[in-house]
Amino acid sequence: MGLTDLLRERPIVQAPMAGGAATPELVAAVTEAGGTGFLAAGYLGPDTLATRIRAVRDSGVAAFGVNVFVPGPICAPDAPAPYMPLLETEAKRYEVSVGEPVHDDDAWDAKIDLLAEAAVPVVSFTFGCPEAGVLERLRRVGSATVVTVTTVEEARLAVERGADGVCAQGVEAGGHRGSFAATGDEHGNRSADRSLWELLPDVVDAVDVPVIAAGGLMTGADVAGVLQRGAAAAQLGTAFLRCHESGAHPEHKAALADPSYTETTLTRAFTGRLARGLVNRFVSEHPEAPRAYPEIHHMTKPLRAAAAQAGDPDGMALWAGTGFRKAMDAPAAEIMERLRHEAGEAGVRV
């Protein structure tokens, strides 16, 4: 089945949330309920990723995808240094040590080899567009390819290299901005800050491949709205964060409903790359984190883990989109049914 047919049959896409939320159970539940579930390969070792792919398939699910982070350039050697004293103060709070500011490619080659062997239906990419040869290699084994984009220029480049589809990510999206390594908000191009509702029609007009819409979508009316504006599918992440099958930390789930957390913002505080999350103490106290990904990610990893173990959400990365307050504590199937019902009320059958 091609990407167009898959998305026509399953136009509600569960976002590939790296860091633990996108469990095989969530992917299976969403897919069994008529959506398209995605595993997140980001931060996983290849063996763990292979195990999760097998778990999804062993559950009887066939129509699903895997998302991969595209490696970026190495930052200046001294870029993380000014952040170290601030993080050492955080480390004392939790009685741990700051992580080493290492640069890695998140096992890129091994994951591409694995996916070329696994031949999953869809492989999507975030933080850039792979070279044409990578996309063609995956296409030869039957995988459709999708590239996350935040500008029209990125969308055109992805299609030029052979992507079968693009995911247009508006600034409302929770988690990391999907901007390409050499463009976008990480390098001063403010056109990457556009709302989904502004970006989507321009991307639809610019490319002749299916466009998945992402960014702040929480309800069936939101799903209907992007489909009516030319999207082939709607991708939702935060809407599934609190669901029973989500692997998000319990404190993360609770924070989404906690009235003391009132807004989200874009921050580099946790990873050195812009990402949207709830405004908590850590975010408020570190507004000037350097642009250094994944170096800062590795530096703060022990701090985030210690905060999670201590049950302290103010030291955790509470990724969330702008519509986070609408996230439901319910089974994924119930959330899917609600989305379909609301979309139908808005005049779109999904």
Automatic annotation (TrEMBL):
Pfam families: NMO (PF03060)
Catalytic function, reaction form: 3 propionate 3-nitronate + 3 O2 + H2O = 3 3-oxopropanoate + 2 nitrate + nitrite + H2O2 + 3 H(+)
Gene3D superfamilies with a match to the protein in the record: Aldolase class I
Highest taxon listed in the record's lineage: Bacteria
Cofactor section: FMN
Stored InterPro entries: Aldolase_TIM, NMO
Oxidoreductase listed as a keyword: yes
GO MF: dioxygenase activity; nitronate monooxygenase activity; nucleotide binding
Keywords for the protein's UniProt record, in alphabetical order: Detoxification, Dioxygenase, Flavoprotein, FMN, Monooxygenase, Nucleotide-binding, Oxidoreductase
Known function: Nitronate monooxygenase that uses molecular oxygen to catalyze the oxidative denitrification of alkyl nitronates. Acts on propionate 3-nitronate (P3N), the presumed physiological substrate. Probably functions in the detoxification of P3N, a metabolic poison produced by plants and fungi as a defense mechanism.
Protein name, per record: Probable nitronate monooxygenase
Organism: Nocardiopsis sinuspersici
Taxonomic lineage from the root: Bacteria, Bacillati, Actinomycetota, Actinomycetes, Streptosporangiales
